[in-house]
């Protein structure tokens, strides 16, 4: 078991006592599981690393073997089932430099870390944690130079991994360098920290100052939050979200629809409504990518669309803005409808500009979990 301590710090000038966050990276430290279970799961964690912390593990109902929070972070033997690809969206083909992806003309991704406050078991980039982070680099000068040389890029997403896992001083250097790029309009931070370790934001005054200064600059600053389940909105998570918003950061939420976590209409409608209530609207509901180890998280496309449609029926227009998309190698494909025979979709974002907005019609297949499983209607 490894421990990290955030300690006592101030919240943007206000003293508070922060409970130390204890990070666990050895499955054998998960003493709520039997010794036998832990030993079985070592087979999984030697392949797909485990990482969690006592705050998040404390949200689990250990009496419930199907608890959704448990499914999110506690490994399962089904991860060893043969399924999926390491890089299901072919991100390799968008990688221009180590740690820099450029798929859509206006948007660049900087993969700045291979760390997260905990590892989602369904992560679509778990290859980063197993491959030693070769696709990420905290050394961003070449990536930022690439962005400088591409005036069509107006939007940069710092991701990985979790952008807020970076030490604050390092994040500050990257953000300040990006602020100096005239043609950038938007800086986005991709992060599940408010769900996994909200104390990170509440206790780091230097981070708060950085967020506030950037949000007040000529760039828009967005925190791309990642709440998967309404139970992640604990009082401390709400406090951290409220603080970030007070600092001027615009917050939106995105999460995949995953089996046993949020693939029922009640959970999903509550997630959508809570996001709206807290001023952090859901922006995308993603289809879980067919990534290696993710067999048990996959929800068939037609079932996912039914659940999303039912969930939307319980919420007002403000909570219906999220687009149900597959992050496919060819672009973001939004699934918009189905009938007895067909599934209808269109390109919300296309890698090839010629595909922008193009409609897609497929034969209905209630087992299909990814676009490549579907047969176009004209075949
Ligand atoms: S927070 Fe994001 S990058 Fe980290 S494990 Fe979860 S899905 Fe993967």
Keywords:
disordered N terminus; 379 residues; 12-stranded mixed β-sheet; TIM Barrel; two-stranded antiparallel ribbon; binds iron/sulfur cluster; alpha/beta
CATH H-level homologous superfamily name: Aldolase class I
The CATH top-level class label: Alpha Beta
As laid out across the biggest beta sheet, the strand order is 5-6-7-8-9-10-11-12-13-14-15-16
Q: Please report the number of helical segments.
A: 12
Number of strands: 16
- Spans of at least 5 consecutive residues with low confidence: 1-17
Number of domains: 1
Q: Identify the CATH architecture.
A: Alpha-Beta Barrel
Q: Give the cofactors and ligands.
A: iron/sulfur cluster
Fold-level CATH name: TIM Barrel
Structural class: alpha/beta
Radius of gyration: 20 Å
The run of helices and strands is: EEEHEHHEEEHHEHEHHHEHEHEHEEEE
DSSP strand content: 15-25%
Principal-axes shape call: globular
**What is the CA–CA distance across the termini?**
54 Å
> What percent of the residues sit in helical stretches (DSSP H or I)?
25-40%
Mean pLDDT: 93
Largest sheet: 12 strands, mixed
Word description of this protein:
With 379 residues, the chain is of the alpha/beta class. The protein has a single domain, classed as Aldolase class I (TIM Barrel), CATH 3.20.20. The chain is built from twelve helices and 16 strands. The strands form three sheets. The protein has a twelve-stranded mixed beta sheet. A two-stranded antiparallel ribbon has the order 1-2. It has a two-stranded antiparallel sheet with strand order 3-4. Helix 6 (168-179) runs parallel beside helix 9 (205-215) and helix 11 packs across helix 12 (301-312). The longest helix has 13 residues, at 265-277. The radius of gyration is 20 Å and the shape is globular. The structure holds iron/sulfur cluster. Iron/sulfur cluster binds next to loops.
């Amino acid at each position: 078991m490894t421990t990290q301590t955030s300690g006592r710090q101030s919240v943007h000038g206000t003293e508070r006592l922060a409970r130390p966050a204890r990070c666990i990276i050895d499955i054998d430290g998960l003493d709520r599981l039997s010794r036998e279970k832990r030993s079985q799961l070592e087979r999984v964690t030697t392949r797909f690393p485990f990482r969690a912390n006592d705050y998040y593990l404390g949200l689990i109902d250990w009496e419930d073997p199907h608890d959704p929070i448990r499914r999110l972070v506690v490994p399962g033997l089904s991860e060893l089932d043969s399924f999926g690809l390491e890089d299901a969206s072919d991100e390799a083909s968008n990688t221009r430099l180590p740690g820099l992806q450029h798929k859509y003309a206006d948007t660049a991704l900087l993969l700045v870390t291979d760390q997260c406050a905990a590892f989602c078991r369904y992560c679509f980039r778990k290859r980063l944690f197993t491959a030693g982070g070769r696709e990420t680099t905290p050394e961003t000068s070449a990536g930022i130079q690439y962005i400088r040389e591409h005036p069509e890029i107006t939007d940069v997403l710092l991701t990985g991994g979790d952008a807020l896992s970076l030490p604050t001083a390092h994040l500050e250097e990257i953000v300040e360098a990006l602020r100096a790029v005239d043609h950038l309009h938007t800086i986005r931070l991709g992060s599940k920290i408010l769900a996994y370790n909200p104390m990170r934001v509440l206790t780091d005054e230097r981070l708060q100052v950085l967020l506030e200064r950037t949000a007040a600059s000529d760039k828009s600053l967005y925190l791309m939050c990642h709440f998967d389940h309404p139970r992640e909105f604990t009082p401390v998570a709400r406090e951290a979200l409220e603080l970030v918003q007070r600092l001027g950061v615009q917050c939106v939420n995105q999460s995949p629809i995953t089996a046993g976590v949020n693939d029922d209409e009640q959970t999903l409608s509550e997630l959508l409504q809570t996001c709206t209530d807290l001023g952090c609207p859901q922006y995308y509901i993603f289809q879980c990518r067919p990534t290696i180890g993710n067999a048990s998280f996959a929800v068939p496309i037609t079932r996912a669309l039914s659940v999303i449609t039912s969930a939307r029926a319980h919420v007002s227009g403000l909570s219906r803005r999220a687009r149900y998309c597959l992050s496919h190698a060819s672009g973001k494909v939004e699934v918009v409808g189905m009938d007895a025979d067909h599934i209808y979709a269109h390109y919300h974002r296309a890698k090839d500009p010629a595909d922008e907005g193009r409609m897609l019609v497929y034969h209905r297949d209630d087992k299909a979990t990814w676009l490549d499983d579907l047969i176009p209607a004209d075949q």
